[in-house]
Specification:
- 2 copies of one chain form a homodimer.
- Chain A is α/β, with parallel strands linked by helices.
- Chain A folds into 2 domains: 2-36 and 210-387, Rossmann fold, CATH 3.40.50; 48-204, Rossmann fold (3-Layer(aba) Sandwich).
- Chain A is 45% helix and 13% strand.
- In chain A, the strands form 2 sheets. The first copy, chain A, has a 5-stranded mixed beta sheet, sandwiched between helices. Chain A has a 5-stranded parallel beta sheet with strand order 3-2-4-5-6, with helices on both faces.
- In chain A, helix 11 (257-271) links the parallel strand 7 and strand 8 (279-282).
- At the A-B interface, strand 1, helix 5, helix 6, helix 7 and helix 11 of A face strand 1, helix 5, helix 6, helix 7 and helix 11 of B.
- Chains A, B: InterPro entries: G6P_Isomerase, Phosphoglucose_isomerase_CS, SIS_dom, SIS_dom_sf, SIS_PGI_1, SIS_PGI_2.
Chain lengths: 428, 428
């Protein structure tokens, strides 16, 4: 991963090279804490060890019995789904990958009707084995399989914790089952048994992915000027402190749309605490130049824009044309056009003093994606250290979970009472 | 459309009922300006007349010759694509709808390879007829059709301005061609010849859509307490002034994901000017409860969350289960679970003093979507009046367009020189 901070400096909010130099001492300290956390495999820090600790053979063995499925259906939510979606979207492969990460009846019904369930492998992912959305969807999927005359026990793979519902279910029905890794929060689990099985089923190059991640891990050092991941994390932190409350993540590659969504979870859930934390905004280049760029360039000066691209793209030439005023496009390639738009947008933001960071990988392939995901995880952990937040917890989501459970009659939770006390000012 | 401002009051940032009462005088003035602009069909305001001015018969006639295509491919970018995508995602229908709104060679190639071009209708949309991304993609699509032995002139529909490349092309090859409506910026064109043709090809209820929009138009009045659209626009404006620089648009319906993206363009490009403008963030309930909610609840107090849902959903029961601790889910429906999550999240945000607004429609159907899109457009126009920005222009996107064109050898543009002067601070 290459991180270019040139355009992050001297914009508005203003970050200077001198401020980065001063911050570097704190990066060195943070790096030591991170290294110690990794050495002790402490909660969260253990995620940065995954390239070395994940058992790729176990993943391959768990999926070996499903020969060449047409479709893989991931049933999970949040970190249990986004990593897998990111990998298959970026790396393509031999299967159609669908995700059930919501409980919208309009969607679940339509999706199940459209699938050939006999050719589908279902991957159910829940650490606790009790996530309401995931288990509800799984119950619906299981019934749909039974109704279609498909033996669901032959088509289901489970990733879950050591105990709980899903574990018992796997044991009772002899389902292939993988362990969620210890000490790895869901949003840091893309390079683990949570997401790799789908990539393996799709025929992705798992070793390449882990090699890329390992290469990025090897670049972590006590200076932000020597580690692309830390350069990114430190610059984001420093810019937020100076007023860049928004971080627009804008890859210039369609196959990285899910990456931007994965990043948004990583950033929001890890860093949104104690009244700090950048708001991640998912964007897509060049498309969103015609949507968000007006705001980034001319709106409030509270933004950092992160521009991501591969250095190499496939070659698709634009045909020659005699259309008025368009002859300049003929002989150019789509990739050349997209890269020109990338560089023009970057310059356009810089000319308007909007800080922006260029992040590049060589190609959108297993190695590049391994670098990118690991790099962003390490950037996030560093940011959390510098901001002194509890990067690996998500206490604020629990309140709503208890309220929902109370509403559904799943126990006595005072939070549910607050729902009935909603203030109303209805305009209709 | 129903707008409930109850939870927008007395949070942080703090907006009071009294402040809304005071603002209502300005809403009355703004409504008069809007009404005058509509009466004169002034640029931009004309968009709010579309339910009455669009020629639905002309749309139907233009698509009549394409009998039952399997697939429709929209080639356009920004407002030329997002409205159509929003409509077909929300309303479903008989065709698969794909969008080429980017120039990523990896994506364009893969998509074209996967389509049966002989059963595909291509809808090319560009007001000027010279949009680089759109025309490049169209040239590639046209060549792919020719290579596949398909007569592209039999499969292409055009929506464009009165003159320009696409217009001449349509005339030369006798293609069905529709006019982009006068005075309607792309991001306000969902209810026009820009997006309706695809909806018509998909068999959507165009009249229902326009009826819904008309019903919302009829509710515009000189008081925010009588018009759902103005209630939303005025509350967003007042909250931004008080510090809610972020507006997270979070529909609880998978089929409204594109709606959130359409909204993001509407909001960002219309209001992001003169150093003001809320940053729209696209979210999705319940999925993003496991991603963004931590930040909304515990991060900086600079946010408004907009929660959107239909009041009625299809019925999909959750099967009974003897799984430990999950029996409370059995007999419940997926929609019941999703609505419990909606209300729990709403209460959870309120309990944390995070302002939120509930927006509802009766159902995700043509009438409801007509209300919702028109309502959000009117809300945006009102916000623009209150903030005194030039709602219907997008000057900041032009700089980058000129730079890109210069880079590609399409003329002498000084902006292109700035690209070569990029500052570098590369960490690798």
């Amino acid at each position: 991963m290459y991180v270019d901070l040139g355009n992050a400096l001297n914009g508005q909010p203003r970050l200077t090279r001198e401020a980065l130099d001063r911050l570097d001492d704190r990066v060195a300290d943070a790096h030591e804490r991170i290294a110690r956390g990794r050495a002790d495999a402490d909660h969260g820090y253990a995620a940065l060890n995954l390239p070395d600790t994940v058992d790729a053979d176990a993943v391959r063995a768990a999926v070996a019995d499903f020969d060449d499925p047409e479709t893989v259906l991931t049933v999970g939510i949040g970190g249990s789904a986004l990593g897998a979606a990111t990998l298959t979207e970026a790396l393509g492969g031999d299967v159609d990958h669908y995700i059930l990460d919501n409980v919208d009846p309009a969607h679940v019904g339509t999706l199940l009707d459209s699938l050939s369930l006999a050719d589908t492998v279902v991957h159910v992912v829940s650490r606790s084995g009790t996530t309401a959305e995931t288990l509800s969807n799984f119950l619906v999927v299981r019934e749909a399989m039974t109704d279609a005359g498909v033996d669901w026990t032959e088509r289901t793979l489970v990733t879950t914790g050591e105990a709980g519902n899903l574990r018992s279910l796997a044991e009772r029905h002899d389902l292939p089952a993988l362990d969620v890794p210890a000490g790895v929060p869901g949003r840091f689990s893309a390079l683990s048994t949570v997401a790799l099985p789908v990539a393996a089923l799709a025929g992705a190059d798992i070793e390449g992915l882990l090699d890329g991640a390992r290469a990025e891990a090897d670049r972590l050092s006590g200076s932000l000027f020597e580690s692309p991941a830390y350069a990114y994390g430190a610059a984001c932190y420093a810019l937020e402190r100076r007023g860049a409350g928004v971080n627009a993540m804008m890859p210039y590659a369609e196959s990285l749309e899910y990456f931007a969504e994965w990043f948004a979870q990583l950033w929001a859930e890890s860093l949104g605490k104690d009244a700090v934390g950048q708001t991640p905004v998912r964007a897509l280049g060049a498309t969103d130049q015609h949507s968000q760029l007006q705001l980034y360039r001319a709106g409030p000066r509270d933004k950092l824009v992160t521009l991501v691209r591969p250095r190499e793209r496939p070659e698709v030439p634009i045909p020659e044309t005699d259309l008025d005023g368009l002859s300049y496009l003929g002989g150019e390639s789509l990739g050349g056009l997209l890269d020109a738009e990338f560089e023009a947008t970057e310059a356009s933001l810089a000319a308007a003093d909007c800080p922006n960071i260029r992040v590049e990988i060589d190609r959108v392939d297993a190695h590049g994606i391994g670098e990118l995901l690991y790099g962003m995880e390490a950037a996030c952990v560093l940011y959390g250290e510098l901001a002194n937040v509890s990067t690996f917890t998500q206490p604020a989501v629990e309140w709503g979970k208890r309220a929902a459970r109370g509403l559904l009659g799943g126990g006595d939770f005072p939070e549910a009472d607050a729902v009935g006390e909603k203030r109303e000012l209805l305009v209709e």
